[in-house]
Model the fold of this input.
Amino acid sequence: MSASPTATTAAFWAALYARDWDLIRSFFGPESIYYDIPTGPASAGVGPHSIEARLRLGLEGLIGYEHRPGVVAEGADGVVVTEHTEVWTWESGETVALPFVSVQRVHEGVIMLWKDYWDFQTLMAAAPAAWHERLDTADLSWVVDVTGRA
Done:
């Protein structure tokens, strides 16, 4: 028997904030979708390796990555909504506290859909120039447009 959707997402968050990439990938199947609402479904990751690449795009270069959990609610059909704040600290010393609402649909222990809601300008205003440059020059061959699928 698989864990409840809330237990699955709690274990996922623990793996993410530990940046345990092998364990992170284990929460996703080949059809799993992840994207940030501010950047839209045209910049999604699909499947474990693509989702890992999507996460690494934002998180690499951070020397601090802190999770401040808030309200967690489980709804019908395996939907888990998590309100939380992430505190990002870059190697150059910049820091941002970024509020999130994450919506994840879990089926049989697999996160099938994950959407993150956050403020684009809060992140971009705080991030150092080197992080922006890395985003601008990153390999985005993993990007999938899931418009209409998610």
